[in-house]
Records
---
Amino acid sequence: MSKQISIVVPLFNEEESLPELFSWIQKVLSENYSYEVIFVDDGSKDSSWNVIEGLQQKHSEVRGIKFQRNYGKSAALQKGFEMCEGDVVVTMDADLQDSPEEIPELFEMIEEKDFDLVSGWKKKRHDPLSKTIPTKLYNWAARRITGIYLHDFNCGLKAYKNTVVKSIELYGDMHRYVPALAKYAGFTKIGEKVVKHQARKFGVTKFGLNRFLNGPLDLITVAFMGKFGKKPMHFFGALGTLMFIIGFSLTLYLGIDKIFIHKTARLLADRTEFYVALVAMIVGVQFFMTGFIAELIGRNSSHRNVYLIEKEI
């Protein structure tokens, strides 16, 4: 019998918070829902896995995955998504900053209002300015680039239809942009819900300064792959053709000017415009060849023709 809710909890060194988190989830869901909790231990160095094993021995709802080393939150979520069986999949952090009290309403928004994905919005955050200000900038950039108008892309508390999590692939730090990945996969009914943000009770944050660099780079990757992942020539070829035409046109103009108009003018090799035109043509050819090579690689990729089928009769 399938579960109504699968809760995927990625974690790294959270031994103190896990018993309280599961007890809280159990208190909220046990009477009215069938559920499973999948803890994904992302290479913890403390006793987190021992705690998970202890919970599993006492509670059949608990399932667990332990990585050999730390791979990151995206990898943890991906393995959790592959393992989950619930009709609605909820993701949340293990640090007790996400409240399980929000899960029933998130479930209702998916099941009754037919959203494909509902993202939490931590409207009032208990984070330092060093984290909240960059987060606001990233959210603004993500809205502009993806066209998805969410206030908080990076909120760990989200709910999905099972078909959504089975249709996307996470890697790198793509967990920040799951709504964009879902949109590009064809799931466009994306909602948002204001959720409570609890102050951290145990331990310290696991995210360092590298997220300030990785976040924007992953956003660019998501946007590019969503629009041109299956047709890279449309981007590189168009850009290359434009550059080549600009360079060729300028070279043609300089040639006509030298041969027919100003015959006694200085040599083309002495004119700055000639080198600008030459560089533009070379860059244009390089862009075009980049698109061509990307197409060749794509056609030989095992993922090239993976198209998502919604229904079949």
---
Amino acid sequence: MKRLSLFAIFIFSCLIANAQEYSGVSKTHKIDSKVFESEREIRVFVPFSYTENNTQKYPSIYLFDGQFDAFFDMTSGTMDYMSQMGELNEYIIIGIKTTYRSREFTPMYADERTKKDWGDTEIGQAQLLEDHLEKEVFPLVENNYRVEPFKLAIGHSLGGTFVLNALLSRPDFFQAVIAISPNLSYDYEQIVTRFDNYFKSNASMKKFIYMSAGTIGSMENRFRSSAEKLDRVIKYHNPKELMYYYTVMDGENHSTTPLFTISKGFQEMAKIWTISEDKKKTLIDDASQPFVKDLKLFYNNLSEWANYKVLPSINEINSFGYDCLALDKTDEALKVFNWAIELYPDDANIYDSKAEALAKSGDMKQAKVFYKKAIDVLEKTKSNYDSENYEYYKDMFNKNLNALDKS
């Protein structure tokens, strides 16, 4: 069975017909922080598929200013929507709730005038938040959630300052950042200067950076002026391996840039992590080698960039099989489903999908075998499902088997 279609009309009709809720859930964790000597909170969002099985791991997004629920909900909702539409891979999202932004998001000032300019004796203590992440947040997330090593950081305004600074101060933290209208004018453009100095002695930076700035408002234009200086620095040095994007959002102000930057940043990330519809069709139609071989090559290359073994999720590989079926490439679909079973032998739905492909190929005998196998695996892994999902799949698999018996 195809869990999630790439076509919205299919998804919405399925949701209405089957009353399935394809939505993620979030939970708040309290941390007795020794770094800050106070209680801190993080909010964690897991996608829908996380609740369907207990083996798959996910890359993560660290969202700064997670105390702003609307910002967190917009980010998690955008990720959830785009992933269910097949436009983005799924992530676990960790919202970092901040209590003192000017202290926690800014690196120590290099110019004494900055302290006077800000009128704040506590600015410049980003290392506290960095220590909090390293010693308290990362361990909590890794011990309680199935996360892969890959981390994408998102920050707006001073949050954008923090995530860009972290690439230099704690380069092992994040492999990718989305900096929304970052305040790079802070401390007389300290971060711009540091990036310039970094690239003078380092020819490469194996990272992803998506940065934006608006054009409305004096503060936003001041930030944009500094962002454009960083843009010129990066383009001048042209570091190897850096995937870099800078977008000026004409007509947008400091409050509206997040609306567009989140989705555009995700779209650019998706070009790395997903195969476009046009590319998939080309690969499936290419008779020079099996589509499943193209898939394995794609994920091998992605793994090399991400620095860990990346595999398609259960939903992704299932959809790849159905992409083949939609183009009447039944043999290719069966090869994809065989790889899916190899990767996820305890996922009952994959056997149901293979059974559908076998039925379409005309092999009703083997189709029946795999429909029964889906039911058998579902029963053996019943504890992996909540009662609603278990009953949903049980009913679906039995209907498919009965329909085949009657044909």
---
Amino acid sequence: MVYLLLAIASSTVISLFMRIGEKHIKNQMGMFMANYAACIFLSLLMKEQSVGFWGEKVGLTVLLGSITGFLYLAGFILMKYNMKHNGMVLTSTFMKLGVLIPTLMAVMVFHEVPSILQTIGIILALVAIVMIHFEKEAVQSGGKKIWLLIVLIFAGTGDSMSNVFEQIGNPEAKDVFLFITFLAAFLIALILALASKTRVSPVDLFFGVLLGIPNYFSSRFLLLALGEVPAVLAYPIYSVGTIVAIALIGVIFFKEKISKKKGIALGLIMLALVLLNL
């Protein structure tokens, strides 16, 4: 349970650092570049297998890892944009709601049949999305709420790639897959940072490293937690725990307001996340 709590804390800190860095970051690509450089360093430092071990299906490992790296970086960019326009609470909630994507992929691509509870969870999640998207303030925000759906798609698709790799890749090359993922995200961010006319400042690099540490350990601690806590309990606790923690931080420290309708929608999403992971 300790590892699970650490995973929740790490995931929460990612959103917190992103929110704090809003007013200080001049070149966000420079920040993301430093973030993934830190992830690469930590993945090499904490690896259980040699990165030199490629095993079978090398090309597929590189391809899937590269796609995942792109999706991770795009998800972070969309997360930062949404936090600015839609707040930390809703942004983080919709990113966690991305669990809908791997669920639908499992049904449509890998022909897995969802349980009755998972089906109810999907319906509740869709109802919550409609409630938030068509809220009065959403209509007045100039279409900014649509980006919540976009970040949901990218975050969920990024999460799905691990399952895709498990299904069609070489499971023995997991460490290589993770390394390629971080490396691809780093290289894309590096190219975009160099192409930008904005100078990468030490502050950008500092916040990037700060972001990279919880970014790496949120995944690592969750994997360690799954070795102690059944997945049927770990995933719902991790998802809902992160949402609750971020919501409390958003309301208490950043004075974000949650309307009654939005509060009901968030409650439905939390319930949906639990059902989707059962």
---
Amino acid sequence: MKEDRDLQFLAYCNSNDLKTLVDLMTYDKDGDIRLTEQLTNTDAYLRYYPDQLNCMWQEIANELQRFGGNTLANMWRRRGVCYREILKDVCRKMEVYFRGEESTEDLEKALLEKVCLEAIDKMPEEELREMAEQLGIGGKNPRKYAMVFALQLAVKKGGPVFIRIVAYVTSMISRMLLGRSLFMVGGNLLNKVLGVLGGPVGWAITLGWTAVDLASPAYRVTIPCVIQVACMRMNQNYGYNQGRIAV
């Protein structure tokens, strides 16, 4: 593993969050083990999965670095790259503007803002309404445009509501990619979203991902994994736990 200060916080994350990250790297949408993953055969995985994953945070970080070294932009490297490099690569693919001088946390926040704004803009009205109601946004029986405006304003404003929106959207992505519920953050909403937007076409449309992204096995891993890592860091920095967010 490359020394990577941006991933050292994984040692302090709970196993539920780490399990989501590990599953995104090791399983495809059909529940099959990825041919390119190297984590499930390690002694650490056999010993610590699924309940003590913080004990193998270095192996998890190494696997993410390795996938980052296999993206189209870094194909020539044939080795792992540091998380910040992976993050910047994902930001470029997601068309998130940055100068390169930003902190890792600021880059992640910009990425999460973009992902959430895209999801809110494309989410069906029924799911928007339920999300808005549970978050206490938009008033009584708002029109769709009012809900979209209120949710997008909350994203741009930041703060606790933004963090909860991030948890919704991140869990939606993980559920659609892994085909099952991973976070207890509004299961009814997620079930409906899964029904409407399930599968690779659905989540690609939801987040504005391109056919090029879908064609790259590495980007199918690094994009959702970086979103998951960014959400985990945000929750930890602000004292939240994804599994306990009340929505």
